[in-house]
Design goal:
Elements: E1 4-9, E2 17-25, E3 29-34, E4 43-48, E5 54-64, E6 72-78
Antiparallel strand pairs: 1-2, 1-4, 2-3, 3-6, 4-5, 5-6
């Protein structure tokens, strides 16, 4: 399921922010493409662009998608497993957590520029 997101690093040493799209989603996280690698453990704030949903997640791994190192496949684990994505008919093995439990307020974090490659694995 492709979900357009705005992702921002919550770690001041891991400068990254920008629009991304998920490739796969689950109640535990997602896989997305990013323009550069992200270090394992980096905490990100995720904002769904089509709604006011906001959550945080951590990078599990980051792998190049090809030999030119222009796109990276990044796996994220949600801090709170649930149907954050708003899937209408989620699989029966997804955790049942109320949609109202998701924060619709913006946690404080500063915007940082995401053009460096300091966070390679």
């Amino acid at each position: 399921m492709a979900v357009p997101l705005f992702a921002r690093s919550l770690d001041p040493l891991a400068t990254f922010y920008g629009r991304v799209h998920t490739l796969q989603v689950s109640s535990h996280g997602c896989v997305l493409h990013a323009p550069r690698p992200l270090k394992r453990g980096t905490e990100l704030r995720l904002d769904v662009l089509s709604s006011n949903r906001t959550t945080t997640a951590r990078v599990i791994h980051s792998d190049p998608t090809g030999t030119h190192l222009k796109t990276w496949t990044v796996a994220l684990e949600l801090d709170k497993p649930a149907n954050f994505w708003g899937v209408q008919s989620p699989p029966s093995n997804w955790l049942e957590i109320s949609e109202q439990s998701w924060s619709r307020e913006s946690p404080s974090s500063g915007s940082v520029r995401g053009t460096d490659r300091e966070n390679q694995q």
